[in-house]
């Protein structure tokens, strides 16, 4: 994976988003307009994520403080519960309707809510926790590779 390729993918997503927004702006049908705008926003999100991957590949990321981890964890936990409630509600609506248009729209929302729920869980476990500088980790970094292991020696 090359940085140049990732940057090109981000540009492609941005171009695609702009084209979809332009299409949405000329369409009078509100449902189609909202769907095209929604897909455009996803493409903007993808571009942002590709640019984040570039940052991960190019440079070491800063540690997260224990205080920031606490705030992030509290917020994520709250959002995880909200996403779960929204997912259950959307699934309930989708199951209750016979209108294929409503089912399509609500099912798309439910799919997004399910992905958001899973993404938040993964953010918490695979990014926030591992990239937190805890006091234990700090002491381990200071003393683990030290030839004197805390004794005078210089």
List keywords for this structure.
154 residues, mainly alpha, two-stranded parallel sheet, 2 strands
Mind explaining what this structure looks like?
With about 150 residues, the protein is an all-alpha fold. It has two domains: about 1-60; about 60-140. It has helices at about 5-25, 30-60, 65-95, 100-130, 135-145, and strands spanning about 65, 130-135. Strands 1-2 form a two-stranded parallel sheet. The longest helix has about 30 residues, at about 65-95. It is flat and about 75 Å long. The protein starts with a helix and ends in an 11-residue tail after the last helix.
Percent of residues in beta strands:
under 5%
Number of helices: 5
Which parts are unreliable, with pLDDT below 50 for 5 consecutive residues or more? none
Helical amount: over 70%
Structural class: mainly alpha
Question: What characterizes the major β-sheet?
Answer: 2 strands, parallel
Order of SSEs: HHEHHEH
Secondary structure: number of strands:
2
Please provide a brief summary of the model.
By secondary structure, the protein is mainly alpha-helical.
């Amino acid at each position: 994976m090359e940085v140049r390729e990732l940057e090109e993918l981000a540009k492609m997503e941005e171009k695609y988003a702009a084209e979809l927004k332009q299409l949405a702006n000329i369409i009078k049908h509100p449902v189609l307009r909202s769907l095209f705008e929604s897909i455009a926003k996803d493409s903007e999100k993808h571009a942002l994520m590709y640019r984040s991957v570039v940052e991960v590949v190019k440079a070491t990321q800063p540690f997260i403080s224990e205080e920031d981890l606490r705030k992030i964890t509290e917020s994520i936990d709250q959002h995880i519960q909200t996403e779960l409630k929204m997912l259950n509600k959307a699934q309930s609506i989708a199951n209750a309707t016979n209108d294929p248009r409503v089912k399509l729209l609500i099912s798309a929302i439910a799919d997004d809510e399910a992905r958001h729920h899973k993404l938040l869980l993964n953010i918490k476990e695979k990014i926030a926790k591992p990239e937190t500088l805890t006091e234990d980790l700090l002491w381990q970094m200071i003393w683990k590779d030290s030839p004197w292991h805390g004794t005078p020696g210089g």
